[in-house]
Design goal:
The chain is of the alpha+beta class. It contains 8 helices and 11 strands.
């Protein structure tokens, strides 16, 4: 059994060696399509090689040489056109362009191949040629004229009549839309100026009341955060006083704020409430006092009523009075 296996291996090796010995060298062919072009046109340079499976072929590369008058546009990949047994038919194509007039001698196409210990160069038998022609410009049989002057044509209404009537239609539609919008806003108690004017700044007391409500919803003192609670309370007071009376309350101490507000005609109860809140806040922030829930709520209410009792009573603006009159007239007509 061992002798039979050894004999089979030897026969296979002998057949492979015999096949390799019989491998024929590759053949090469080349062509240029088309071989006659106009200057600036492209042409295809094609190289075809028939080789054995064990042979390796390396196709040439075209370098950048502007002085040659021929430039490489694209190098296409190698295609396998057919296979018959161990023979392969390969094709390599190059897209080139010519930018000089004349007849170009491209020489014989070449390709490098290797077979076992053999490295050689394949060359075609015939040389390739390319003829490049240029455009003929006949300047003798044609007369060159100067530029003609610009003509000024009379204006005619018919040239813009279409745009004119369409423009009038668009303006009419816009006017109707503006009138309908105005009537709608009047019924809603507003005017056309409202959407385009900036929103007025909120009065200081409105800002303070909103801040107090937000502070109350945080439930700080309920979670033993008394310092944060009183800091927020006094910050709201200082901000309101600075905006309401125009003094630098944010940089003042409690005593300085109380002394500065003596120059204003404050209600007596409001002045006492302010002093109480500021002094309670100083005890919590600097003496680490811990007031009970009743005192916390009392200071919150004193701050709230201080803002309410000292706020500016703003008169109704002209726009608001106008809107109010429009609402009354609309109700009367209804």
């Amino acid at each position: 059994m061992k002798h039979a296996i050894r004999l089979t291996l030897l026969l296979g090796a002998a057949l492979a060696a015999a096949t390799a010995l019989r491998a024929q060298p590759p053949t090469i062919r080349a062509r240029v399509e088309p071989d006659s072009i106009q200057i600036g046109d492209r042409f295809t340079y094609t190289i075809e090689v028939d080789r054995d499976l064990v042979q390796v072929v390396e196709f040439p590369e075209f370098g950048e040489d502007p002085e040659s008058g021929i430039e490489l546009v694209e190098s296409l990949p190698v295609d396998t056109l057919s296979r018959e047994g161990r023979r392969l038919h390969l094709r390599k194509r190059y897209v080139l362009a010519a930018f000089q007039e004349g007849r170009f001698h491209l020489g014989r196409a070449e390709a490098l191949y290797a077979d076992k210990n053999i490295v050689d160069t394949l060359r075609t038998d015939e040389e390739l040629q390319l003829f490049v022609s240029t455009f003929e410009i006949d300047s003798t049989s044609h007369t060159i004229f100067d530029l003609k002057a610009q003509k000024t044509l009379p204006f005619r209404f018919g040239e813009i009549s279409g745009y004119f009537w369409w423009g009038l239609l668009v303006l009419a539609l816009l006017g109707a839309a503006a009138y309908a919008l105005k009537r709608y806003l009047i019924r809603r108690g507003r005017s056309l100026r409202h959407p385009f004017r900036p929103a007025p700044e909120l009065p200081p007391h409105v800002v303070a009341i909103r801040a107090l409500e937000a502070l109350h919803n945080q439930k700080l003192w309920q979670n033993n955060r008394h310092k944060q609670y009183y800091s927020g309370l006094t910050d709201i007071l200082r901000t309101y006083i600075a905006a309401r009376y125009g003094i630098g309350a944010m940089e003042m101490t409690s005593d300085e704020i109380i002394g500065e507000l003596r120059n204003f005609d404050l209600p007596a109860k409001s002045s006492l409430d302010l002093q109480t809140v500021l002094r309670d806040a100083d005890l919590v922030k600097f003496a680490k006092a811990t007031p009970d829930g009743e005192q916390n709520e009392a200071d919150y209410l004193k701050t709230y009523y201080f803002v309410e009792e000292t706020k500016i009573q703003e008169p109704t603006s002209g726009d608001e009075q106008e809107i109010l009159d429009q609402q009354i007239n609309t109700a009367d007509h209804a």
